[in-house]
């Protein structure tokens, strides 16, 4: 019995691989994001993924770029809505914490840091920096400092938040509430 494979364009194949890699990251952690695992998940060959990404490191870097661009675009749009009075700071905090927690950016960033593979970490940092530059200053608020505080809080929460809040007997959303209070202490908002 032969397996029938659907022919995908190069771009569709690449996008399917990145989505499968993101799903593996969220479900099983960064160590599960291998060419073989992604190929199996999308019904392609290891050679097909090598053609698109060159190596496992290339796949992981492409995943980091893809995730960083998507996440910063969403957060940037929410900041612009907040500046227009159509959103609030809580939404920005929630999106940032969800990106690092539920969406896997925290796992990917921590894996890159611990493995010393800055080729994966660099696109994340560059994309965040670009967003801060694009948003520009707003009413003399320290956007870079606010971003640093929010990202480090969200990363820490993604890595240890549940364990720490359980150990300390605190509600799970405590870190998010603290991040929001800290942002508000910078002068009212992150706009």
Can you lay out the helices and strands and say which pair or pack?
Blueprint: H1 10-28, H2 35-42, H3 46-53, H4 56-83, H5 89-100, H6 105-115, H7 118-135, H8 143-168, H9 174-185
Give an overview in words:
Helix 1 (10-28) crosses helix 2 (35-42). The radius of gyration is 19 Å and the shape is globular. The longest helix has 28 residues, at 56-83. It has helices spanning 10-28, 35-42, 46-53, 56-83, 89-100, 105-115, 118-135, 143-168, 174-185. It is mainly α. The chain has one domain: Tetracycline Repressor, domain 2, CATH 1.10.357. The protein has nine helices and no strands. The model has no long low-confidence stretch (mean pLDDT 88).
Tell me the β content. under 5%
- Here the CATH topology equals Tetracycline Repressor, domain 2
The CATH class turns out to be Mainly Alpha
The CATH architecture is Orthogonal Bundle
Query: Could you describe the largest sheet, including whether it forms a barrel?
Result: none
Describe the structure concisely.
The chain is 74% helix and 0% strand. It is an all-alpha fold.
């Amino acid at each position: 019995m032969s397996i029938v494979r659907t022919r995908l364009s190069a771009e569709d194949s690449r996008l399917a691989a990145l989505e499968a890699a993101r799903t593996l990251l969220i479900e099983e952690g960064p160590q599960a994001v291998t060419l073989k695992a992604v190929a199996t998940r999308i019904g392609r060959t290891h050679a097909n993924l090598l053609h698109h990404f060159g190596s496992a490191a290339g796949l992981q870097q492409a995943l980091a770029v893809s995730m960083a661009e998507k996440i910063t675009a969403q957060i940037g749009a929410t900041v612009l809505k907040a500046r227009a009075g159509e959103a609030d700071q809580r939404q920005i905090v929630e999106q940032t914490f969800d990106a690092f927690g539920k969406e896997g950016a925290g796992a990917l960033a921590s894996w890159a840091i611990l493995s010393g593979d800055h080729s994966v970490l660099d696109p994340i940092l560059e994309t965040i920096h670009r967003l801060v530059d694009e948003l520009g200053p707003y009413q003399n608020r320290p956007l870079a400092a606010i971003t640093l505080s929010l990202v480090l809080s969200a990363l820490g929460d993604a890595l240890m938040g549940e364990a720490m809040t359980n150990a300390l007997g605190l509600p799970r959303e405590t870190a998010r509430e603290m991040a929001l209070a800290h942002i508000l202490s910078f002068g009212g908002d992150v706009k």
